[in-house]
Amino acid sequence: MKYKLLYILTLLLFAACRNIDAPQPMVNGLSFLPTANGHITVYKQTIVNIDVAAGIYDTTEILLREIMRGQIGEASDALLHRVEVQRFNAAELRWLPHNTYELQLSALRIARVDTNTVIVILHFPQVENKSWQGNVLNTNPAERFKYTAVNMDTIIQSQHYDSVSEVTQRNFETMYSLQRQKELYRQGIGLLRREVYNVESQHLPGKPLDLSKPLLDRLTKGKIEITEILNQ
Q1: What is d(CA 100, CA 64) in angstroms, rounded to the nearest whole number?
Q2: In the prediction, which pLDDT does 26 show?
Q3: Torsion region of 112: left, alpha or beta (phi above 0 gives left; psi -120 to 50 gives alpha)
Q4: Which residue from 68, 115, 141, 181 could staple onto 39, CB 3.0 to 4.6 Å apart?
Q5: 10: exposed, middle or buried (C-beta count within 10 Å: 0-12, 13-18, 19+)?
Q6: Is the pLDDT of residue 177 over 60?
Q7: How far is CA 32 from CA 29, 86, 136, 169, 231, in A?
């Protein structure tokens, strides 16, 4: 009986080891996003408009929801999916059409098609410090996108997310201005957070700048957009 038990334990241990060593399926652009028809993701978008000279510092919050509307075709090696975006109308307490865009999904990349401009937002495999040409499929000036972090943990709207990838699309900062766009993604969910800064800090008549303060504490003009997923 003792030898029979040892034999069974040995078989179980062998099976467990084989399961651990088994190669895991590689994540690529075809399996990264939820693409089921009707899948919904809701976001809160905060928009800050700044113009100190005109006395403007306005903050607006809106709710957006993105609905997958299924595959609509193919383009070369990519599958095309349409995404419908709706905006919540607080006065009427209902969702109204906002805009639409398309996603091009292939094994090596995911591209977003917005107003006929194709931007490669993700490239596979995901490796920290890997970069790619985000505008390779359009005629805009070249811009290098980069994975500035992979497999990171983050908290958004009090919700914890693991296995998150951070993509920096633009990050140009001087003492007087900041142009930055970063996006966080997770497999099985898609976009978690997007931040876009296009702001500046300039001397105004009678209001000298205090350069000892961080740039974001002395802004005089520009726009900030923060888009965050709501709890899934």
Answers
A1: 12
A2: 64
A3: beta
A4: 68
A5: exposed
A6: yes
A7: 5, 23, 21, 19, 19
Is residue 25 very low, low, confident or very high in pLDDT (cuts 50, 70, 90)? low
Output the six-digit token pair for 82: 């349409």
pLDDT at 24: 44
Q: Is 208 exposed, middle or buried (0-12, 13-18, 19+ CB in 10 A)?
A: exposed
In the structure, what pLDDT confidence band is assigned to residue 76 with cuts at 50, 70 and 90?
Answer: confident
Decide: 210 and 218 in contact? Cβ < 8 Å: yes
Q: DSSP E strands: which ranges in the chain? A: 40-51, 56-75, 78-89, 94-105, 109-114, 117-123, 131-133, 144-156, 159-173, 177-186, 190-200, 221-229
- Chain-centre distance for alpha carbon 91: 29
Are 101 and 114 contacting, i.e. CB atoms less than 8 angstroms apart?
Answer: yes
Nearest by Cα to 232 from 29, 40, 38, 53: 40
